[in-house]
Amino acid sequence: MIGGYVARRILALIPTLFFASLIVFFTIRLIPGSVIDLMLSQNDGSASGLPRAQLEAALGLDQPIYIQYFRWLGSLLLHGNLGNSLWTGTPVMDEVVHRLPVTFELGAMALVISLSIGVPIGVYTALRQNTIGDYIFRTVSILALAIPGFWIGTLVAVLPALWWGWSPPISYVSLLQDPVAHLVQLLIPALILAMASSALIMRLTRTMMLEVLRQDYIRTAYAKGLPVRTIMARHALRNALIPVITLIGLLAPLLFGGTIIMEQIFAIPGMGLLLLEAVGNRDYPMITGVFLITGIAVIIINLLVDLSYGWFDPKVRTR
Amino acid sequence: MASTPLLQVRNLTTQFGSGAGAFTAVNDITFDVNAGETVAIVGESGSGKSVTALSILRLVPTPPGHIVAGEVVFEGIDLLKLSDAEMRAVRGNRIAMIFQEPMTSLNPSLTIGLQIAEPVNLHKGMPWNMAYKKAKELLERVRMPDAQGRLNTNPHQFSGGMRQRIMIAMALACEPKLIIADEPTTALDVTVQAQILELLKELTHETGAALILITHDLGVVARYADRVCVMYGGKIVETADACDLYERPMHPYTRGLMASIPRLDQPAGVRLVPIIGQPPNLAQLPPGCAFNPRCSEAAERCRRDTPNLMKAGDGHSHACWMVPHG
Ligand SMILES: Nc1ncnc2c1ncn2[C@@H]1O[C@H](COP(=O)(O)OP(=O)(O)OP(=O)(O)O)[C@@H](O)[C@H]1O
Ligand code: SF4
Ligand SMILES: [Mg+2]
Fold first, then answer.
1. Which of B301, B308, B286 is nearest to B236 (CA)?
2. Fold annotation for A96-318
């Protein structure tokens, strides 16, 4: 039953992804300044010396755009090939697969941090509604939502250097080289990324807990003699977290947007940096590939979110 | 009765709010419940029945509610003096409660097996697998078909009547000495109501548990209760043995309630006589007897002095100036 459901969901993704690829494929070519202009303006590049027409032909850009699209789509469907970078000639798929884990790691770290900050504080503020603690956390959460991440990110990157001559590590250390240094390096951007999302999670958890705590079944739990701790953990939190799970699905694209900026500020070679470079270079296949893979990742996360409802909310399971 | 009652409620007073908006929902009430007996509390909506029940278990939402005076002596111990932990050991264990809304009183995301096994695990220290076995037995006792198969299902698959059976199983889990049922059948179909009440009567009888049955249906009282407390505006205005109350209702409010129930010996088509007027606003009770604006027998004194419960015969008391006592 659950297998059939997943299969149906995945089938339903195909048209979505098809349209997404179509839109990305066409719109990126609308960015002013084509890749050919860029290449011709750089005399030292690999393409130097070739006349414009030849360059276009070599890159396959002389064809009408819909032909280009179907070629791209054909090789994707038949060979799982996303094309090659216009500049370096490396397969887009290799590049993306190489970069995806870091971005995913950064996003996942931010999400874990947001949940482990947002949920407990949300519960705390609901239990202490309208006390000083509640008031302070609510105010802080508004601040966290209002302050842009890139601003904090820039400050964190620049101020310690000015004040103490210390700056966050700039040269990237991979997980295999030195796991600890790697995690420490990702921690600061992950914390900054988590700022806004933990505030959102906290506020939603608080609202939902207040709602759940008014329910009759909570009174039943008290009437059984259960201690508050058990009532929260077993009876309240699970019901209160159902909308929070939905929020996680919605946060996924937001966090990805955030990682692009953090990767740039903290020089982390993930999908975000790849995308920025690709856009700067008008590397069309690379841009399309990054968007497509990101889109698939976001959709998979949302699929997982939907599946987890079954665990949280039994009404969904039997449907 | 020679032995001391199981539960002695003395001068219990519960208020809501503070300052100008404060009102007394339960006003200086006193009653006893003996071991194994069924005491009904009847009264119109808002008369303070639920707040009385919640006050006994100290479950009144605070704020806005506070128990401001009185004693709730259960098995010789004043519950109002217990620590929170001691009180938790009473709830669901020695005293269990069944609520009015079976559709919302069970947790939608937990299995009924867990919800019934929970008090057994908590109070009897039974490991979960044993507690689940007990839960299955309890479901069989409330005549749930396919009890074993139902343990792992969630409440939304059950009808209101079935859910109330589950609530009863949960209440019986630790073999409490007292069960408080707050309008356990009001939300159910008429045919199901009788089944649930019969079940409750039978099971309390088997286990020897006393029952406080809150209802606004005097027909239910006649069939199931040993004794009755009639509440009006947060006070008990009359209390008597059930039969006695039916034969000799004394307080004008009780007589009004009696007149408003359909009787089998009444020719069909005879109009019921409801009590005229609105239930009182607790924040602005009239001086004197709270019932005086609606009472056809009200006199000068009723608007000046507040009557308290006074004996009017064997086990029969009422709070009315105009009806003879003794
Ligand atoms: N949590 C609360 N906050 C404020 N007022 C309350 C609260 N609970 C009950 N009250 C008030 O206390 C009074 C008594 O209410 P209670 O629920 O005991 O009535 P009841 O006799 O059980 O009526 P019903 O038959 O409708 O259940 C009412 O005026 C009600 O508005
Ligand atoms: S005391 Fe007076 S007003 Fe109150 S019930 Fe008796 S007769 Fe009526
Ligand atoms: Mg009530």
1. B308
2. MetI-like fold (1.10.3720)
